[in-house]
Structure formats: C-alpha cells, structure tokens
Design a protein that fits this description.
Elements (H helix, E strand, L loop, with lengths): L1 E3 L3 E2 L10 H22 L19 H13 L3 H28 L2 E6 L9 E6 L5 H12 L6 E5 L2 E2 L16 E6 L4 H5 L5 H28 L11 E3 L12 H22 L3 H15 L4 H4 L4 H15 L9 H16 L4 H7 L6 H17 L3 H18 L3 H9 L4 H10 L4 H38 L4 H10 L4 H10 L11 H4 L7 H9 L4 H10 L4 H10 L6 H11 L12 H21 L13 H23 L1
Helix pairs in contact: 1-3, 2-3, 6-7, 6-25, 7-8, 7-10, 8-10, 10-11, 10-13, 11-13, 13-14, 13-26, 14-26, 15-16, 16-17, 17-18, 18-19, 21-22, 22-23, 22-24
Organism: Rangifer tarandus platyrhynchus
Pfam family, one: Ubiquitin_5
InterPro entries: NUB1, NUB1_ubiquitin-like_dom, SASH1/NUB1_homeodomain, TPR-like_helical_dom_sf, UBA, UBA-like_sf, Ubiquitin-like_domsf
Length: 638
C-alpha cells in the first residue's frame, strides 16, 4: 500500500543479555510446562488426596513427588516443589471458582498485569458477566491500583468495548484479561509519584491520539477512489510486490486498507518499543483483515507479517501466556508465506529476482516458534527452531563497514541493508541492485502520475458536461476509468447528478428555471411541463436536462419527478447558512491533523517491513539457546 500526494507506501509485508527478570520468567515457565507434562503423563491430580487434604491444604505426598521430578529434571528440589505448589493452588482455586460460578453466577477472570509490576502479575478477579466493559475496567483499576483512564483491557485478543456487557463480548468464566498501560516505559515508573491529575491528562492525550489514528486511517481509505488531485491530496493505495498499484474489489478494499493502515501504525509503535500502545493497533488490524476474503489473504504476505508482529508484541510485553493461540498464529504465518512466496520461495524469486530480504521474516518466525516451544516445555523442538534462527542470523548478518561503503555512494542505511541482503553481502552487486530499484520505482511513479493525469482530464470532461465532481468520479470508478462507458452510466442513472460536492443543505436550494431555458427545451420538441421539471432538477443545466429527457422518452424518471416536487417547496435561504462555517473549518483542521499524524508513521520505503538490524533478535536467540543448552547438558548428565 502507498500514500500519494507526498508518495509513500504501506506494504501489501548482539549486545547485552536480557534482563535477569526475563531469564527467571522464561526458565520458570519452562519448568511449569515440563512439570505439567509429567503430571498429565502420570495422571496425577494435585487438587485431590494425597496431594491436597480435606481442608485444601498441601499434603505430604507433594514433597516426595517434587523430589522425583527434580531428580528427573536435574533441578533444585525446592524450586520444583515451589512451582508444583503453585500449580496445585491454581488447580484448587479453579475448582473452587467453578463451584462458586455454578451456584452464584459470579465468574472468575485471570488478570495479567504489566511487566513493570514484577510481582503478582497474575491475579484472580471475581465479577458478574452482565456488567459493562467500563465497569470491569473500573473494577480492575480500583483493585490493582491503576488510573481508570490510563489502561486498556485485552480479552480474547480483542480490546474490551466499554459500552457493551461482558456477555455480549463473549467474555466467559476463567477467561484471561491482559492489562495494558497507555505508557509503560521506565520513565513512567520514575514519574509514578507525580500528581494523579498529570497522569490522567497524559492518558487522555494518548486516548485522543488513538482516536485520531482511527479517524486518519478512515479518511485516507475513503479518499482512495475519490481523490481528484493526487499530487496535492494524500490518500492510501494498494501496491503489489513490485510497487505497482493493484485493483481490489470495492467490498474488500476499505477493510484491507484499514487493516494495513492499522498494521503500519502498530509497527511504528513497535519500532519505538511502545508495545502497550502497539498491541491495540495490531489487534485492530487483525480484526479488519478478518473482514477480507480468504483468497485475498492468501495472496498477500501482510497478514502473515501481522501474525508475527502480534506474537512478538505479546512476547515483548512478557504476556505470551495470554495468547492462547500463539502456535496457531505462527502456523498461519508460515502457511501464508508458503502460499505467497511459493515452495522454496520460487514465486518470490520469479517476481523480485531474489529472496534474501524476506529471510528476515523467517528468522523472526523461527525465533518465535523456538520461544513458544521452550515456554511449552518442548526443549528439543525449541532447540531445533532456535538453531534455524541462529543459522539464518549468521547468513543475514551485515558487516557495518559494507553499509558504510554504500552510504558513501549516496545510499541510505536502510537501502544498504536491504541491498546487501538481496545480493548476499556483495557491495558492488548491492549498489547496482539499489540503483536499478530506484530507476524502476521512478518509472512506476511516472506511469502512475500519467494514469492519474488522464483520470483528472476525464473528471474535468464530465464536469464540463454539467456533472458534479463526485458524480464524475463515481461513474469513472464504476467504468474502470473508461470515459465513454462512464457517460453511459451517467445517462442510465440520472439520479447520480445528485451526488453533489457541496453540503446537503445547499444542494436543495434551487431557483425556478428561466423562461429562456424552458423555451430552449420546448424548441427542441419537449413538453413545457417536463422541460420545467427537468431544469428544476438539474438547476438550470439545459444540456443535462435535454440528455435525460431524450434518454427517458421525453419524461423524467419517477424518482427524479419526486426530487423536482420536493425541490419546488424548498426555501431558497436558510438562517443557518453561515452558522456552520466555523465548525466546518475546525473539523477540516482536525481531519488534516489526523491524516498528517498517520502519514508521519507510514515509511517512505516500500520494503521498510523487511529492514531490521536484528540486534534484538541476536540477543534473544543467544539467551534462549543458552536455556536449551542447559537443559541438554542436564539431560546428558541424567
């Protein structure tokens, strides 16, 4: 996808170690998953005797079981016992909650708090399901010490809708709810002591920012087919992998544009590491993608890239366990890449000549698959995927000096990285590749400018015949740009003349047709009454009135006869003529601000989504490989 009028595109897609807290969390999650596997295999139910007594307290048998499993895992017995006690307590709580829900109708929600809180991130909250989303948000804020307007709640991979009840949104007993702070950076932690009013103001600003994002994307998507001057008016367009515009069925187009627009906005937040704000944008993108047909999603890689970004965002928030279908999303991404790129990337190579740049996506895919398997207690599978990610990293690593050499030739760092990966690290070949790509894009821009110029000429031609700009654009759209066919459409549908550019109030203000114009139509052979009615409908435009009367056998169509009768009783003046001027100007300024805010986050380079320094990936690959290496070492000793 791209924006024109300042042309930008939206895709149709080592260092320090991880903090110690991350390591502890990852290792604990692995042990929990592994112990849960053992319990299932041994058919042990910890919430029953001898592991839980009649008072629901821990039984002595749990210690013996912990010793058995710690020997099996070559782990600290106390650590294993502690985790098993957590598993037991959760099972007891769930059983108690189920009984309580059956008798009282009060559901239990598992609330996952932001990572900055460090302790007690997973908590249980009881609530009725007939309350609204706003009431649940208020309850969570009060219970866990948040400002109500400072948080968003994600349940079932969707933002909680404040005006609907929990039942209407599919919220059920034992569901998981993730709390997102509108800002969750270290800076916010340091500023936590500031006055509550300041925090609320910042939260309101963020909420308005998100609302502007939504409005800006809607405006740009609506403009796509109706823009008159493409050089002056920004709008969204959809491009294929070579950068050329492609036509999408109108029923799919707006949903696809909104999906891709939200995705780009979410990616902009991801780059700034604002994961709490990125996730709602990514989930909105997923919602709009789901409105598109399956065939369309199978032909673009954007949907696959989005799945990776959603899982990555959950992972970076430290809330991967909230994403119950992480495995499904990663599998969906892999299948989508296969359909888009072909087996062994042969379709991609045919289109673009190489597949080096897209390998970055597979590195992220293998890394996330490795992490998910590790968190699920599957050490061997985790090692396999992490090793594949490691091998790809070595292949994709770029010598900084080569990037510097290309920048000395006048290329950007981004162009240098993408060019080097496309050319297997060869500087000379990369320079040629980047130059050729620039020339190809320049040619595409020239062709599309010419296409837009012809469209503008056709619009002006139809306007010269008396049609409004809006009617001309709609007719040309229906006629796929064919001027002759557009004229036929307008003649067959004279009511399209009412698609006016001005406000509805002013559209209906019509003066009585002049005697001269009536006589002109009568001289052509039309009935005086029909001529007067036609001129009233078409605001005195003799040419349109004559064309319509000829096309309809000397009469107005029934729907236009009604319009003529309505217009004859419409007053020619209105006391509110000037009242809306100020508010209209304000609305226009707000729309311009919303659009500009979107454009700031749309990357100029069409392959921005493939550009990565891989610094974060390098750290995480090394960290998780160390985890699975420790597991393998322990297994060998055992």
């Amino acid at each position: 996808m791209k924006t024109n009028g300042g042309r930008r595109r939206i895709r149709a897609l080592g260092g320090s170690r991880l903090p110690r807290l991350w390591r502890r969390m990852a290792q604990k999650k692995y042990l929990q998953s592994k112990l849960t596997q053992f319990l299932r295999e041994d058919k042990i139910q910890l919430w029953k005797p001898p592991y839980t007594d009649e008072n629901k307290e821990v039984g002595l048998a749990l210690k013996d079981l912990a010793k058995k499993y710690s020997d099996k895992l070559e782990c600290c017995e106390n650590e294993v016992e502690k985790i098993m006690e957590e598993i037991r307590c959760k099972a007891v709580e769930r059983g108690t909650g189920n009984e309580h829900y059956k008798t009282t109708g009060i559901a239990t929600i598992e609330v996952f708090l932001p990572a900055r809180l460090k302790k007690d991130r997973k908590n249980l909250l009881e609530t009725h399901l007939h309350i609204t989303g706003r009431e649940l948000r208020s309850k969570i804020a009060e219970t866990f010490g948040f400002q109500e307007n400072y948080i968003k709640i994600v349940i079932n991979k969707k933002q909680l809708q404040l005006g609907e009840t929990l039942t209407e949104q599919g919220v059920a007993h034992n569901v998981k709810a993730m709390v997102l702070e509108l800002r969750q950076s270290e800076e916010d932690a340091r500023r936590h002591f500031q006055v509550e009013e300041g925090k609320q103001n910042e939260a309101r600003l963020e909420e308005r920012r998100i609302q502007r994002t939504r409005r800006g994307l809607e405006i740009l998507a609506e403009r796509a087919e109706m823009v008159v001057d493409p050089e002056a008016t920004p709008y969204l367009d959809i491009a294929n992998q070579t950068g050329r515009s492609i036509r999408i069925p109108p029923s799919e187009r707006k949903a696809l544009m909104l999906a891709m627009g939200y995705h780009e906005k979410g990616r902009a937040f991801l780059k700034r590491k604002e994961y709490g704000i990125a996730l709602p944008c990514l989930l909105d993108a997923d919602k709009y993608f789901c409105e598109c047909c399956r065939e369309l999603l199978d032909t673009v890689d954007n949907y696959a890239v989005l799945q990776l970004d959603i899982v990555w965002c959950y992972f970076r928030l430290g809330q991967l366990e909230c994403l119950d279908d992480a495995e499904k999303k990663l599998k969906l991404a892999q299948e989508c890449f296969k359909k888009c790129y072909g087996e062994n990337h042969q379709r991609l190579v045919h289109i673009k000549g190489n597949c080096g740049k897209e390998k970055v996506l597979f590195l992220r895919l293998y890394l996330l698959q490795g992490i998910r398997n590790y968190h699920s207690g599957n050490g061997e599978e985790a090692y396999e995927y992490l090793n594949k990610a490691c091998q790809l990293f070595k292949e994709l690593y770029i010598d900084p000096s080569k990037v510097h050499n290309l920048m000395q030739l006048g290329f950007s760092a981004q162009e240098a990285r993408l060019g080097l990966r496309a050319c297997d690290g060869n500087v000379d070949h990369a320079a040629v590749h980047i130059t050729n790509r620039r020339e190809e894009l320049d040619q595409i821009k020239k062709e599309e400018r010419e296409k837009k110029r012809r469209r503008l000429e056709n619009i002006n031609h139809l306007k010269g015949m008396g049609y409004s700009t809006r009617a001309a654009k709609q007719a040309l759209h229906q006629a796929s740009g064919n001027l002759e066919e557009a004229q036929k459409i307008l003649l067959r549908n004279p009511q399209m003349w009412w698609l006016n550019d001005s406000a509805p109030e002013s559209n209906s203000r019509q003066q009585s047709p002049s005697r001269e114009n009536i006589d002109q139509l009568v001289y052509m052979g039309f009935d005086a009454v029909a001529a007067k009615a036609a001129l009233r409908v078409f605001r005195g435009n003799v040419q349109l009135a004559a064309q319509t009367l000829v096309h309809n056998g000397g009469r107005l169509p029934p729907d236009l006869q009604l319009s003529a009768e309505d217009s004859s009783s419409t007053p020619s003046t209105s006391p509110s003529d000037s009242a809306g001027t100020s508010s209209a100007s304000t609305d226009e300024d707000m729309e311009t601000e919303a659009v500009n805010e979107i454009l700031e986050d749309i990357p100029e380079h069409e392959e921005d989504y493939l550009d990565s320094t891989l610094e974060d990936e390098e750290i995480i690959i090394a960290e998780y490989l160390s985890y699975v290496e420790n597991i393998k070492s322990a297994a060998k000793k055992n």
